[in-house]
Amino acid sequence: MGLFKTSILNGIAVLIRTLTMFILNKILAVYVGPAGYAAIGQFQNFIQMITAFAGGAINNGIIKYTAEYHEDAAAQRRIWQTAGSLVLIFSFVFSILLLLFHQSLSSYLFKRADYAGVLLFFAIFLVFFNLNTFLLAILNGKKEIPKLVLANILGSIFSLLLTSALAIFYGIYGALIALSIYQSLAFLVTFLISYRAPWFQLQHFYGKVDPAIASKFLAFAAMALVSAICVPLSQMVIRDYLSHQFNSTYAGYWEAMIRLSSAYLLLVTTTLSVYYLPRLSELTQLQDIKKEIYIGYKFIFPLAVLAGLVAYGLRDWVITLLYTPQFHPMRDLFFWQMLGDALKIGSWILAYLMLSKAMTRLFITTEIIFALTSIAWTYICTQLFGFEGVSIAHVLNYGVYWLVIGFCIFSKLNNTKEA
Questions:
Q1: I need a labelling partner for 344 at 20 to 30 A (CA). Which of 53, 71, 102, 107 fits?
Q2: Dihedral sign (CA 63, 69, 72, 78)
Q3: Residues 6 or more apart in contact with residue 327 via CB below 8 angstroms
Q4: What is the DSSP letter of 314?
Q5: Which pTM was predicted?
Q6: Any stretches that span the bilayer, and where are they (predicted)?
């Protein structure tokens, strides 16, 4: 399926998901407030890290090798069996760890021990969380876009209903519980959608771990784990710094800003993962790869720029509609945030090439360096420009990142005949 058809189908899911995110943002703004946003952001970053270590780190590998062996059903089954077994093993291990340390983790994440029950819910539902993303990765690699779109739509609606209900009745505690369980419960939806597919057989998803296949996943696991540590951890450090430098309310404004960025860029980012990763994984000739990258810059990058311009032009209306007047100070972040978002998408078009071609060393090195520089830029820019500096740092970091990975990737590709 080509970029245009993929984008249309994906656009339907993104439209629904974006609407649900906007509605959910409004509900959370009313019922948890800016300080509550900061706590939600901390917990989401924690979830990203734990799910990656508990098996989610190999999802990009599942997509790549499912797409790469599209003509070899037996090879695909070996890929899935090894991946499924690894997901089950690591999910169980990290569930036990969460159960053992939920009290101390609650004190560290939320600065209060009475939220420990949130960690218990997360521990119990962790395996279903990762099984859901496991099946979604197979659907993506198989290029069964309609089923993937349907699963994402139903998952978005389910998330909205569950999170809204729990946030309205139980406030921040309910919202945190919803984050712990909604993707796990969405597994039931994804399972039912996948169940009727001709390739779906339960015995294909667990059993003997093939060492050769597991070693193939190692590069993807290393990249995903570094990303799952560096990006969320840098955000947690920045959020904690903003809380101390200003206060937790200002950390909540920043959290609201980055959540808005995620929402309005959703069509772009999901198209990259749904279309670009499996597509680039299939290509071996340098000219074909360059052509695909050119298509990305011709169609995807301008879409990100346009979305940012619209968001900036409607910033006052957006804050009023999606949040509350209490969030008005985040207005100062819009210009620099939108500019930084455009640079981020420009760099991500190349970053997906690193993932698809398992450029492990380059990916890990740049992830670590630019996670650290994001923290450093934030400190420097907030000292110079105040709270607005957190978004100026966003621009500087992704501008330099784009230049560096562009130079490194094309130097590497030009030195090889095939990727």
A1: 53
A2: negative
A3: 29, 34, 253, 256, 319
A4: T
A5: 0.75
A6: 12-34, 46-67, 79-103, 115-137, 149-170, 176-197, 217-238, 258-277, 297-314, 334-355, 362-380, 392-410
